[in-house]
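Entry for Double cubane cluster complex. Fields follow.
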Amino acid sequence: MNLPENFEEYSEARRNGFIRMKELKESGKQVVGIFCTYTPDELIMAADAISVGLCGSSEEGILEAEKHLPKNLCPLIKASYGLAVSDTCPYFYFSDLILAETTCDGKKKMYELMGKIKPTHVMHLPPGREGAASLESWEGEMHRAAEVISRQLKAEITEEKLRKAIRQKNRERKAMLRLYEIGKLKPCPASGYELSSLAESVQFLFSSEEKIQTLENRAAELETRYETELKGTSSRPRILITGCPINGVREKIIKQIELMGADVVAFDSCSGPRAQMDLVDETLDPYRALAEKYLRINCSVMSPNPGRFETLDSMVAEYQIDGVVEIVLQACHTFAIEANLVKSFITQEKDLPYLCIETDYSQSDSGQINTRLAAFIELLETK
Ligand code: BJ8
């Protein structure tokens, strides 16, 4: 795997951000902890605060969480709560407010417990997009969240500040998308391990301009590498990852796939361009525009969720995909059930090999996963 000299693993980037955040707090910055792609970051930016992702991505905290939560629960929820309740996550400690959403049942019930530790506001995300009431209600939730943030942080969110935040966040999205779209190049000049690590690590820079610069610089280097060294050379099998967020299983699955001889070039998940592919409309009323944009996110918590299949359809073509690996975190019912539809779509409509891996953050199933991945990659190589 070809990693740049200054490459930082996600866990390193997260650790390196601790000091940066401490300094920002000491300078008077306020912090809002978030857990989901549905969170309208623009509201936080408009309050002159910074957001930080608090999703647990390792086994740390899980034992502690299991004292309060069922064992048979998604590892992402348990790890996130465990870090909070054990007071072992500096980012949770520094957060002045938690901004969350009613996505899956496990997360929304966990937030009730989290609210006992830290001020927590839960936005009521509609369970589907059909009918005008969904958008109306979600727009109302944008206003309600803005009021809570303003009150809690004692920071006024004006329309002008919100419009400015929308423009800035759109610039971040474009930079992020440029990096992810490196995966469209064939052969791909970077590993999916690197692309996904970098895309998720830049959040710990806490400066929007610095994030944009970092993403654009790396994308430009990779574009040049492709043009000057790789264009016209042969490609390894190209894999699209779909399903649950991969942060807690990047080493166990993404790295392994690439060590075994295939390239992970695309991510149809929240660890991918899902939220960057369409921008917030800068011409509309800002609350309406935020509601429209965030309601379009294709997560399996939405019922029905046809947009995910439209996106998969175009990604399979644009990224020249040879096979699809779905990752389902244990006890994630929405993705596990939707996996049946994804399997039929990929194998029947797209005529491509598909592999579904259900896993958690432990290493106990690594051997079994490696065996299945090796067989899958062999199949792709012989196709
Ligand atoms: S928009 S994917 S970040 S909800 S994996 S906690 S759904 S049981 S993380 Fe997610 Fe927002 Fe959707 Fe993205 Fe529940 Fe499933 Fe666990 Fe999940």
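NOTE: The radius of gyration is 20 Å.
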